[in-house]
Fold MYB binding protein 1a.
Amino acid sequence: MAEVEAPGSGAVTDPRGVLRQGRAFLDFFWDIAKPEQEVRLAATENLLRHLREGRKDDELKYTLKRLVEGLGATREAARPGFSLALAQVLQAFEEVPICSVLEQIKEKHNLEKVKKKLVRNAAFGNFFGVMALFQSGRLVKDKKALLESIQLLQQLAHHQTHLRDLPRKTLIDIMSEVPESVFQEVLFDILQGDLASAFASPENLHLLLVGIQKFPGVLKPKNLKKLFGSPTVVNEENIPRLVELLQSAAKSEKKEKKLPGVVFDLLQVSLKEDAFELFWKEGVENGLLKEKSGPVSYMCYRLLGSALPLLSLDQLQMVLRGKVMQHYGEHVVTSQLPDRFKFAPEMERYIDEFLNSCDDVERQLAVVIGFSSLTNQGYPVLSSSSRAVRHLQPVALQKYVDWLKGMFLRPDFDCCLDFSSNRQKQNQENVNMAQRKIARLRKWITHRLANLIESPVKKEESLVMDISRFCFFHAFFEAKKKTSQICETNVLLSEPLDEQAHSMVENYFFGLLQTLNTLTVLGDTAKAATLREKHIHGVTADGKLWIFLLVEYADKLLSSEHVKAVKPFTKAQQDAWERTLKTVKKLQKKESKSDSAKVVSFQQLLLLMAIHLFKNQSDTMDVLSDLLNCTERAFSKEPKKKQTDNAEPGWVEVMVEILLSLLAQRSLLIRRISKSVFVRICPNLTKRALQLILDVLDPYQEQNEESAVVVMEESDKKMKSAQDMDEDGSEESSDESDTEEENDSGDEEKNEEVDDDFRSQLMNVLQAGNTLGGDESDEELDDDAMMALDKNISTLFAEQQKRIQAKKDEKDKMRKEKILRRDFKIKVLDLIEAFLTKQSENPLVFDIIEPLLRVIEQCMSSDSDKQEIDFLQKTANIFNASLYLLKVLKGSMSDKPLTLPTPLPENQSNIVPQACQLLSTGCLDMERVTVIYQQALTQFLTKRNSALTISMFHDLFRRFPIMCKPLVDTLVKFITAGARQHQQAQACLLLQKVLLLRELKLFMTEEEWEELIRESISQVTESLKMVGKCIVKAEKEKVARSLELLNFLLKTVTEQKLRVKLTELDKVLVALNQPEGIGNSARLDSLYWNVMRWLNYTKPKKEKTANKPAQEAEPLKRKKKGFLPETKKRKNRKKGTQKNGVAPVTSEDGVQAAPEEQPLGAETPKKKKGLVPVSGKHESQNRAIRENGVAVVGGGEEAVNGGDAVADKKKKKKKKRMNRKRKGDAGNEAEQVPAAKKTKGSVSQETQQKQGKAKKKRKEKKTPVSQQ
């Protein structure tokens, strides 16, 4: 037993022995203390694995010691890491006694003995120690350790400054895990004081509430009465104190944004004690809600959401019609302002969780109807697109739909919890408030019904059809009297729908129609499952279109005498309706025989346009009539014979025109079905039909389509918000907002410029009022004249303001038209993309390339906003796809033989297969393509502002080498014919890149290649003849590109031994080397001599001046640290400039003369060995050299009197300046002539120089110095 207790009780006997075992074991503890959670968890796992494998008592004792010490670490991240590690170790090694570890914790983190600075660490050490014992799962089993831990937590509860309410919460957690017998035997006596003071703090109340729910046998009403004087917690006497405690709990946990545990436990206890109604009405509604504070209100809302699963049906109805619900509704309305906390999403989650967990239909229905009845002036607070209804049972969903329909027909605000905000009460008009409430409620109900079909709730086909018929009926029809044949007439409207209400329901119906078109097949039958596997949408389980069922229902309504249409049909419209139904039935018979997808697409389009007869009769009639004619011709037996008549356009052309007009509609459903129909008629598309589509994209024909563009008025935009499901015209809003500020600023600038007409009118008004008389009249105007003048001026300015506003409105209208036009073109691009996808092998693909290229060119050369950039990007993507299809089309024409345009020479016979592959053009019209690219290349090299770039042509030549030969002559021509020097340089650069392509020689014979090189050299020669002084950047660029190209051409001539005359080029290049030629540019000089070396010219070496340092000059000697160099000493300063009273003779340009050029007796002064003065030139120019009181300032100049004071001052300044320069000169010399890199030859030369200098010194001493 002693061996078992040793790991936890005894200290480490030999800690050095543990430490000697290696660094890996100690690194575990360092990783446990790191802030990264993943590192801590990994270190804990590795430590446990190491201890299990080793089974060494010393390591286990050391581990417990280190972990206990780490519980009170200063770093916050280290404490939970050590606590978790200790819990895992205690759980893995059950032989370690819990009590011994607890004693270690108390001893190590003793709160009484620790210093005042370390009280916080000690408190956390004890707390995390108890947490480790509790998390190990062994604390509840050891009664002694449990008792001591509870006592320690009670002691830690007094340290609220550091730990706050953590000890109390841990105590509650421990008590919730303790069995009732252990609680009664061990903990009840210790916790009696805390339980008796339950109303002193929220923590103590929470402890009591947990105990009542966990240990009902111990905390009986009789024992509760002994503890705090009442057998129940929730009663009238305790309500005021409970309200105070709940308010305190709400404020203490406001940052956590969750319901405090004590509040939820109090709710459960009130239900257990059958006092929920008292608690809710007195405690919550009349208690907590009276304090208008955010945390308390949000706590009440969370309590409402949390209470939903716990309440019965009667309790739910009481709560959902109480003050908390109304208070919540007011919050939702007022929180719509920005920067306000919104609780609605959180309440949505509470409702979703309740409906998901509840199986009771009545309770589900009560909650959904309760929140739908919370209205703000008739409009429910719950979102009409709430997704919580997806959990409703089918029966509950059907009842909810019936309730919605009943409220639509007969609005009953007595069953609703309606309210108005303070601002609404101030601004409301009592006259039309009842009608306003009804309209708002009906709008919400219509959207709620339409959204139920889109919601993923489990529903039957009958329910979907019921909702669709209801919306369709009230959108376009009115009931005269009840009839059993039409269920929508069973209940008549209590308040009839006005025109605005019909329009609102109509908009939501077309959104519902879009949902039906994309609805998956409903039902559990095998046929429905098969249709779902085929991804078929918009049909019922028996294969019928939803829209067809609605058209049948509409036909039934039109033939009934008990209802009337809101917009009755004329005779022509009725005939078109009946004709449409007959055509659709004929198509249904052909569905099994011909292309079913094509038939279904035409059916959808016909049925949709038939329903649109109820909405917009005049515009739909023309489209429907043409559509019927096209449909009959498209499915007739001999459609090809009718296409031969050129006088009348074919059905495909008419169909394309119809689809283009439908693409401009605002309805998303119309556009989708139109695109679907276009995909089906793509195989029948003709060149004329395709041209109709391409004309829309033509940037030069935009003025023709302005008539088709209609800008919506403000009234239309207001109705647009009601079409959430069907309309998608919101793309223009971002562009409008982006450009609005720019337009406003531009208008302001234009308004500043007053036009002449207004100026003249203003002058006439002022002259009429005699205010411009000047000196002719000094009389002042009377009051009547002044008033009349003011009136005339105000009228004039008002008219001017109207004119300015009219111009501004016109400009705004044009901007909106441009946005709509661009949006329409983007939709048309979708058709072209669909054509390329479905008909990739159609030869009409080639007709798309050129128009797309024009669109790209026009967009790139203009200022583009975001919408235009998107349009350009989409066009470029489609253009790339069309170019990619060239390969597909080239390979698909198998009947055309692949022939070579020119024979290959015999020496290239080994690469004939490759040439065949490169030269094969398939069905490509090379002549037409060549003309197009020649025009583009000419435009690029002649026009100043071109949207094309050199990289485009280089990419073309690289990807399609077959285009090199037809275009290379154009490049050669524009070396001299380019519009500007920059474009001539671009021609040289592009020609050089083309000549570097090895595929180019495969397309040319040797004679053609030699002629190309000869012509290129000739053009470059002519270009270089026109070069003047290279002072302009563009001219330098041209010369550089010409020399680069010339370098390649001469290299080719030399290597391939071509017969090209270079005499003229030689003369031009030699003339270019003159000073007025290429100038002093180092780059041009380098390129020039690279070219000249192919003509056997070599670059001459520059003559070095005498004052520059020689390469064999002696290096500086290494200076000794701490010693002043000889040249810096005062007595040796003048030795470098004066010797025997003779100054060195300088030339006119200030450079010291050579020894043979100097007069007799004027020799070069001796310089110290190893010094190579770089600044000697400047010294001879700037420093006056004294000689017998006479200063010599260069040869040939007059001497200046040495007594001049001004000259002396200048000399001193120059000497100081030269002294500073010497320091830098010595360093430069040392860098220029490093001693470490000398060769043997240079060393021998230096020794010879030293000997020669020594002889000169001896001669100077013997030879007398002649005086001038």
